Amino acid sequence: MSRPPLPREGAVLVMTDDPGEWAPVVADRNAAGHRTALLIGTDDADDPSDLAEQMAEDIFRGAEWQLFVSP
Q: How does pLDDT run across 39-54, given as a tens digit for each residue?
């Protein structure tokens, strides 16, 4: 199964329960100069957007960002 592509531009926070699959993608995107962070979450998280927002506030420091939740 192929994973959906991340946006080409802008800061992206990837939330996944499979960091092994996404870590290289995040690293490559960062190496290309695109701010990307990996958030490891589980299906039992109450509201992933709350956790993502807290993390993005610390990492992206006010820059606009997008949340990408791995299917």
A: 987 666 567 778 888 8
